[in-house]
Amino acid sequence: MSILQTESLTLSYGKKPVIQDLDLSIPKGEITVLIGSNGCGKSTLLRSMARLMAPETGAILLNGKNIAKRSTKEVAKELAILPQGPVAPEGLTVLQLVKQGRYPYQSWLKQWSAKDEEAVTRALKATNMLEFAERNVDSLSGGQRQRAWIAMTLAQGTETILLDEPTTYLDMTHQIEILDLLFELNSREKRTIVMVLHDLNLACRYAHHLVAIQNHSVAAQGCPEDIMNEKLVSDVFHMPCKIIEDPLFGTPMCIPYGKGRIAKNGLPTAQYA
Amino acid sequence: MNGVIQSSKMKIAMLALAVLLLAVCMALSVVFGYTNTSWKSAVAAFTDFNGSNQHLIIRNARLPRALIGAAVGISLALAGVLLQAVTRNPIASTDIFGLNAGAGFFIVMAVSFFHISSLQQFTWIAFLGAAVSALTVYILGSSGRGGLTPVKMTLAGAVIAAMFASLTQGMLVANQKALEEVLFWLAGSIQGRKLEFLYPVLPYLLIAWAGSMLMFRQLNTFLLGEDVARSLGQRTLLFKILAGLLIVLLAGGSVAVAGPISFIGIVVPHFARYLIGNDHRWVIPFSAIFGGILLIVADIGARYIVLPEEVPVGVMTALIGTPFFIHIARKGSFK
């Protein structure tokens, strides 16, 4: 079943088309990962699905309804997006940031409620940020900071969460930590997660549904084990590689050919087959 | 958003104290000046008016000056708060972005070419000037690659401010008579302003003050960045238009009454944030009161710095504000 759909969607920057006539369905309750080379339009597609960018033509349907025709506050209760590299104002505490997640539930008449408070506490707990609640966001490490932002999107209480490159600029440990957190949110609370990732191996490990974007459209989509192969990587990334099975998870693992040093047990053909 | 003062109770107490300080400063502004007056005669001027020179000065010159000083100080500080939030730029203010210069130029043009002298017309012309500058800076700042960035917007503001200032000077050189009429006003001054100057502007200023206070939640959310704010369901375009209108009312109204006074709009919000943190629920009222205090203190200082002459208060705020501005520009905040 699909929760988010694009219908003959065309996106462009000025005259330059980025996505053309795309019909895409995001499965409900699963993790979908968008991959593709730099500038292929995967971030643009993600932004448009969160109404941060208006389609040239076509429509985005959230739970079957066109998001452009709905009140933006109502959409904000069903779908959240964490943009790439968000920056908190100087001196903002984690608690204050997470509280902002309740913005769509408030108005001049409806002030802070017990339900808001509960949602904030739950978001802080789910991201293990409770102990950092009073710390300034700008004093945290990269991984903690990203967790604080994810806590804010969780406080928004949406069924669907979109994330644009949530692991960029993080070291390996923190990348895994963030992806594990998202994986748990999905398996425990059945939230639909759509994200853009650059690391193909992590994408294959965490995605139920992988979408490869190329040439203004979708080159392939489906379960990573079914669609990941050497030809796809070569088509989408113009990179020769060898696909093996991840010895730990059994998911596809992509090893690029290249220059590099060949060790004793390496293959002489590794240097550009 | 933590500042030096953290608890809400302390903030309320501090705010009450600040209001009290503003009242004291206004009283000082009524009592002290070139013409010697005492507290007693200041009170008597209202309770037991006898038509003496002292009483006339207190009622017709000093009191209007104190009230106008407070109103203009509050407005300039609020305009600074809004502009810094909307542009997410710590060194934004209506003087740096050319709004004050634009309003000033339009008024000088109206005086020298169209011989406009009605206060009501002055007000609208000042609004128009501020709006034209704001739009020009916004369009210049957002054109080209990368959209609206703080650096581009600041550069555009500096260019527009310089352009309007030069045009104003050029026009005054060509028109000596207008020069005499507007020179002191142009330097930014609240001396010799009658309350009649304030009346046509006051309704707009009051609306803008109330509007600013009501916007605190939207301001806090917008500061997370436009994408995040939109993701949270904020109608950011509407927010920017509303905030822009408030800024134009505040800056244009201030300039119509007092001429372009600089540095209040940039320094005061930083000082308020340093004290009470980033939450606009507090930043707005604190900045408003501090703005009033700073302008009145500067105005009192302006009476004494080169006795027996007075310097325009705009010169005083520049003297006080420049070191702060350099500090803020270097550090990005007051700290």
From TrEMBL, chain A:
The keyword Secreted does not apply. PANTHER family: IRON(3+)-HYDROXAMATE IMPORT ATP-BINDING PROTEIN FHUC (PTHR42771). InterPro entries: AAA+_ATPase (IPR003593), ABC_transporter-like_ATP-bd (IPR003439), ABC_transporter-like_CS (IPR017871), P-loop_NTPase (IPR027417), Siderophore_ABC-ATPase (IPR051535). The lineage of its organism: Bacteria, Bacillati, Bacillota, Bacilli, Bacillales. Transmembrane segments: none annotated. Keywords: ATP-binding, Cell membrane, Ion transport, Iron, Iron transport, Membrane, Nucleotide-binding, Transport. It is found in: Cell membrane. It is a peripheral membrane protein. One of its GO terms (molecular function) is ATP binding. PROSITE patterns: ABC_TRANSPORTER_1, ABC_TRANSPORTER_2. This is ABC transporter ATP-binding protein. Gene3D superfamilies: P-loop containing nucleotide triphosphate hydrolases (3.40.50.300). It holds the Pfam family ABC_tran. Residues 4-240 form the ABC transporter domain. It comes from the Bacteria.
UniProtKB/TrEMBL annotation, chain B:
The keyword Transmembrane applies. CDD domains: TM_ABC_iron-siderophores_like (cd06550). It comes from the Bacteria. It is found in: Cell membrane. Keywords: Cell membrane, Membrane, Transmembrane, Transmembrane helix, Transport. SUPFAM superfamilies: ABC transporter involved in vitamin B12 uptake, BtuC (SSF81345). It is a multi-pass membrane protein. The chain crosses the membrane at residues 66-85, 97-116, 122-141, 153-174, 197-216, 237-255, 283-305, 311-329. Gene3D superfamilies: ABC transporter involved in vitamin B12 uptake, BtuC. Pfam families: FecCD (PF01032). Belongs to the binding-protein-dependent transport system permease family. FecCD subfamily. This is Iron ABC transporter permease. It comes from Fictibacillus fluitans.
